Amino acid sequence: MSGHVEQTSLDTGALDARVTVGRGTFTLDAEVYVAPGEILGVIGANGAGKSTLLGALAGTLPLRSGQITLGDRVLSRTDAATPAVSVPRAARRVGYLDQRARLFPHLDAAANVAFGPRAQGRGRRAADTIAREWLARVGLGDRGSARAEALSGGQQQRVAIGRTLAADPALLLLDEPFAAVDVASSVDLRHLVASEVRRLGVPTILVTHDPVDLIALADRVLVLEDGVIGQLGSVADVLGAPSSPFAAEFAGRALIRGRASDHGTIHLNGAPVSEVSGTGQLPRPGAAAVGSFDPAAVRLTSPAATSTAASNAAIAAEWLGTVSAVFASRTGVRITCTEWPEFVAEIPVSRAVHQHIAVGDRVGLSLAQSDLTFAVPRAPAHP
Ligand SMILES: Nc1ncnc2c1ncn2[C@@H]1O[C@H](COP(=O)(O)OP(=O)(O)OP(=O)(O)O)[C@@H](O)[C@H]1O
């Protein structure tokens, strides 16, 4: 008999967590909300606390303080007012998947996928039926009797996805799950994960170093910086208006810093930027401002041309600079200036040749309003 076995999510609901976790001298301090069926991307530099966050949610790292709720279940709670709660890892119904499939080598694909339902008390036949259904869902319906060694890396990761989801997780934690598979497989796997997360309505956290993961999968992005949330918003907002060097590099944008001097005027790198139309958040007067732009959007002119540019309403900012370095990039030529080493312009090779750009040249640099976006940097939570 191989009928359909109903898998019901008993308590699919949102993840609502406020966690403080200590690890040696490091402290993670973050609030995270993920709606059912939502994928929250988490990015951050090495050591920013991404794994610590996943560990706290999975129940492998204790909270110093805070509370984690999943639907109507409290998974962890540590505060002075109420009794502490810490649901053991196995009872949390938290699915975890990283870049290694970690299939049991002595079991075939079907038995690997059946492992979760069996561990949850399903009979052999019911678990086997669930496993076959999941193998079909992940596109390996005909490979149930194959052992890991007979499967490609991408196929093994498919089995691992099936195994994770067959255990009926109420929260899914993904730690760079596509990093070790080839590009073609990663496209298919992203599609598979996205559609299953939406179908099952499971809140999902995706830690990644790959912008494509965010673009293809994430609904929102959280940027961790030294244990605190540096930025949180839609993928378009965070990648389009990053507030930190890490997020800017991740998004392929350059940062410029400045200060809002009065209403509507922001000084960036000493250049007044008025009538800022930029997307993102504009800072309050006196507050720090972080602008960002695509280096390829910078217009390079001769110094004499800048005054003409200034009269052009579409120009948001312009500077005079001295070229300090000219170097090859993936898509053209990158240029930095002595005055602002972090300010980067990128132009096609042909234009660099045509304009004879060389170290020591004085150049005008300008940005159109639509190419400059602003973000308000968060004050650090730790002194
Ligand atoms: N076992 C440990 N004991 C003490 N400190 C630790 C331990 N593990 C990690 N840390 C510290 O906790 C901080 C956060 O580490 P975590 O692994 O969460 O960062 P991450 O963002 O996941 O980094 P990566 O991208 O390198 O995996 C780091 O500064 C690290 O030094």
From TrEMBL:
PROSITE patterns: ABC_TRANSPORTER_1, ABC_TRANSPORTER_2. InterPro entries: AAA+_ATPase (IPR003593), ABC_SmlMolc_Importer (IPR050093), ABC_transporter-like_ATP-bd (IPR003439), ABC_transporter-like_CS (IPR017871), P-loop_NTPase (IPR027417). Keywords: ATP-binding, Nucleotide-binding, Transport. Residues 10-251 form the ABC transporter domain. Coiled coil: none annotated. GO terms for molecular function: ATP binding; ATP hydrolysis activity. Pfam families: ABC_tran. The keyword 4Fe-4S does not apply. Transmembrane segments: none annotated. It comes from the Bacteria. PANTHER family: SPERMIDINE/PUTRESCINE IMPORT ATP-BINDING PROTEIN POTA, SPERMIDINE_PUTRESCINE IMPORT ATP-BINDING PROTEIN POTA. This is ATP-binding cassette domain-containing protein.
